[in-house]
Amino acid sequence: MAKPAVPDYLARDSEFSDCPPGHRYTLYGAFWEPERDWKRVENVKPETLNGTFRKFPDSTVRLRDAVLDRQREHARQLGESVLTLDTESISPFVSGTGIEHPLENGMAFLNPYGLPYLPGSGIKGVLRKAAEELSKDVFGEGSQGWSRVAIDILFGKETDDRENEHTRGALSFWDVFPRCDSLAADIMNPHYGPYYQEGKTPADCYSPIPIFFLTVPAKTGFTFHVECDVSRLPADWPEGHWQTLLRAAFGHAFDWLGFGAKTAVGYGALRRSAKAAEPELAAVEEEIWENAGVSYNVSTREMIAETTSQRAVRCEAKALFDALGSKRRQDKAKAKELVARVRVRLQNGTAELLEILPA
User: Fold this and answer.
1) How remote is the C-alpha of 302 from its chain's centroid?
2) Domain-wise residue ranges, the chain
3) CA torsion 72→299→241→222, rounded to 10°?
4) 164: Cβ–Cβ under 8 A, 6 or more apart, which residues?
């Protein structure tokens, strides 16, 4: 009987039913046979995997929702410096198949949460590939604004090891967490095991050896967040140009590339979600707050205005800080002692600081 390779005092709950899926697939996975000197199990049936990962524990669902809510709130506070895209998978998704695992195919889970995820580094690689193909007009779609210079600006520039002309790109890609409540078993059916593993002559007479692995089911939601350091953009770029380029790259990736592993055989295909195609426009209002406490953080360049019941934030607020004029007002802002009239914008339940009005 297959068991997890853990000490006896941990194995009292042999199914680890309250654990996140990442822990149950790795540390606490029942993939070892003590009767065979703890060798890995030779054949895990898909029914076993589907039964184990059919439904996430409620604690895992709450944890995932909390992570997604924190990401969305942080993106909202950063405002126009973050591009957010809501998408939906139209095929199974898998990431991290090269990670070592007893079933031969691993899966990427973010520790300590144990949640399946698509690393931001992988997203950057796909979108850079999409931008390069668009710049060369590989599929006859036109460049849609992409060029070698734009790629270097947004994604960074790397040269040969013996050169030192490396530059950081303006974009940062956040990890993506699928909004799924379960995982599903899929199959890989290699026919040439003796040829690949034992050096025998390739032939069609070998028996297939099925290998099962986990995937995120189709019709799962994925939310992408891409942050841009606008200070690294050329001064002559129109406002929002980086977002236009990035949307074109995402569209190309959705049509031709896919995300995650095994994209060449159809996994990881995504599309813009229907609800995101026509976003609702929330009402925008502006207000003047009297006697608001104003503070400025020099290290993060964030300015905050607060009243007894309200709070407005402005990221990248160096220009607002400089506009205070006198050194006395600037010093008070840094010391969280400045009281002033401020103009704010209210939208989607959040307040953005627009201006510190003259005393």
Assistant:
1) 24
2) 79-181+211-277, 285-356
3) -20
4) none
Q: Tell me how far CA of residue 256 lies from CA of 131, 178, 248, 251, 267, in angstroms.
A: 12, 21, 12, 9, 12
Closest-CA residue to 105 (of 94, 115, 116): 94
pTM for this model (two decimals):
0.73
Which of 82, 85, 272, 265 lies closest to 176, judged by CA? 85
Instruction: Dihedral sign for Cα 75, 76, 80, 86, please.
Output: positive
The β-bridge relationship of strands 109-110 and 115-116 is: antiparallel
Go through 5-38 and write b for each residue having 16 or more CB atoms within 10 A of its CB, e for each that does not.
beeeeeeeeeebeebbbbbbbbebbbbbbeeeee
Whether 83 and 228 have beta carbons less than 8 Å apart is answered as yes
Range of weakest confidence among 5-14, 30-39, 206-215, 301-310: 5-14
As a CATH number, domain 79-181+211-277 is: 3.30.70
Matching residue, tokens 């159809």: 266
* Other Cβ atoms closer than 10 A to 280: 6
User: Is residue 307 within 8 Å of 289, Cβ to Cβ?
Assistant: yes
How far apart, in whole angstroms, are the C-alpha atoms of residue 216 and residue 272?
Answer: 17
d(CA 34, CA 7): 12
Q: What is the per-residue pLDDT across 103-127, written as a single tens digit (0 to 9) for each?
A: 888 999 999 999 999 999 999 999 9
Smallest CA-to-CA distance from 213 within 20, 3, 45, 18 is with 45
User: DSSP label at 217?
Assistant: P
Tokens at residue 342, please?
A: 């401020």
**Residue whose token pair is 């979600």:** 273
For residue 178, give the 3-state DSSP assignment: coil
In this structure, are residues 192 and 206 in contact, taking their beta carbons and an 8 Å threshold?
yes
How far apart, in whole angstroms, are the C-alpha atoms of residue 43 and residue 104? 11
| Cα dist from 38 to 23, 27, 32, 102, whole Å | 19, 14, 5, 12
